[in-house]
Amino acid sequence: MATEREVLEFIIVPPFEQRAAVAAAKERFENYLGSRFPGYRFRVGPFAPVGDDEEFSILPVMNFPGDDGRTYMCTSPKRWFVQEIAAACRQFDLKGFRNFAA
Hints:
Blueprint: E1 9-13, H1 19-24, H2 26-36, E2 41-44, E3 57-60, E4 63-65, E5 71-73, H3 79-91
Parallel strand pairs: 1-2
Antiparallel strand pairs: 1-3, 4-5
């Protein structure tokens, strides 16, 4: 059994100052990211003391269950890809519907 798999899911933790606005637009924000990066899933997590208080934190979900019932680790996502996700998070319009269209 091949035990290497690409990360397909990410948890997005908003900056402290934007946590309420991101929570209010959670579904729209997750859909926006899903349409920007097809094949990947995104979940908005609660604010946590991780990373920089002024930037979005992108946390890859690194484990997956194998066919044998054991848990395996995914290969780490490329840094450039995580940076693209962070840039897309910063570009999202939290107050409007500009980025809702796929």
